[in-house]
Each structure stands twice: as structure tokens, then as C-alpha cells.
Write a structure and sequence with these properties.
Elements (H helix, E strand, L loop, with lengths): L12 H11 L5 E6 H7 L1 H10 L3 E6 L20
Parallel strand pairs: 1-2
Helix pairs in contact: 1-3, 2-3
């Protein structure tokens, strides 16, 4: 595949990046994600990626909104604490 990047499903970018880096270690792998995606729904995937200590760059935007779908549970916003 000749591409500069691709999208993955919500919360699973660290898992995709881990698989990519494990199979193609010569690539420069970046995960660009938001706080809700990486720290809420994708929290477990992020922890396991960090634990494996692969050479993956993470650009995490803390925009302080989780942007989760309606009727799903998520951490409360700062104003509700």
C-alpha cells in the first residue's frame, strides 16, 4: 500500500499502530488522536502499546471533550465534577 496514512475505528488506533510497527519496524508510525479516543474508549489499547515500548509516536490532543456517541457511558466533563 503506497499511502501516507489511514483512519482506523474509534479507540483502536494504538492497536493498529502496534500491528503495523511489529510487522514493518522500518516505518515511522504516528498515532494522532484525541483525549476521548485514546484515554477513554481506547485506554486499554494505549496502555498495551506503551507497555510494549515500540518506537511509535503519539500526538494526543486534549480538547477536553470526549465526543462519544449518544447513550454511551464515558468519563464526565470537568464541569460536572
Amino acid at each position: 500500500m503506497n499511502t501516507y496514512g489511514f483512519h482506523s475505528i474509534h479507540g483502536r488506533a494504538p492497536a493498529i499502530a502496534t500491528g503495523l510497527k511489529a510487522t514493518r519496524p522500518e516505518l515511522s508510525v504516528w498515532v494522532v488522536t484525541g483525549d476521548g479516543d485514546a484515554l477513554s474508549i481506547g485506554g486499554n489499547h494505549l496502555i498495551h502499546m506503551l507497555r510494549r515500548n515500540l518506537d511509535i509516536n503519539i500526538l494526543l490532543f486534549n480538547n477536553k471533550i470526549y465526543g462519544s456517541p449518544k447513550a454511551s457511558t464515558h468519563p464526565p466533563p470537568r464541569s460536572a465534577r
